[in-house]
Design goal:
Elements (H helix, E strand, L loop, with lengths): L2 E12 L2 E12 L3 E5 L6 H9 L5 E8 L2 E2 L5 H7 L1 E4 L11 H7 L8 H12 L1 H5 L10 H13 L5 E5 L7 H16 L4 E4 L3 H7 L2 E6 L2 E7 H4 L3 H7 L3
Length: about 240
Amino acid sequence: MAKILEVKDFHFYYEEIHAIKGISFYIEEGEIVTLIGGNGAGKTTTLRAISGLLNGVNHGTIDFLGTTLNKIKPHKIAALGLAQVLEGRHVFPHLTVKENLMQGAYLRKGNEIKIDLEYVFDLFPRLREREKQLGGTLSGGEQQMLAVGRALMQKPKLLMMDEPSLGLAPLIVNEIFEIIKRINKDGMPILLVEQNSNAALSIADRGYVIETGEIVLADKASNLIKNEDVKKSYLGH
């Protein structure tokens, strides 16, 4: 399978702080790949660096579908087909659900936008029910659905998700992860950062363990979930 994203020997510095220390990983077509690790390990920094959202010095390469992303502006990275669902959801509180979703399609034109809006409403029936409701009045789980739907309206070639289960009730977490599996089954490769390592590894194809800015372990998700060190450190066993 072809590689969608490949990060090679990537370093990132916030001024004097060496936050990411030479990580390398890749995602192939159709995969769910997860980055797991504790708070402050560098997971979110990695996603934001890929998306071009950070100001700092970087070395190494980030290649996305044959284009090197280093030093490319975020809006141009988005135009290449890379979408990120940010930690904390960040919906537009004073726009309706439909208006929020249409913000995801701001780079697009044509009739396919309507088709994709129907796809999002099919994935998230609650968003259809609340189509005219303001984003800021939704529950946390509904706002997460809206953030995912908005990213899908971009029609991305890779979807990156940062802590989609954060602050959500267990039943809603299960629902969100079932939807992530369906999106992937429909052909979307996904890079997933998630504190709930058990849930992430249960749906991923492969995983990388990151500690203090370094990847310390990489394997199939089915192997990582059985790894004694991973169990002890990240899975609550």
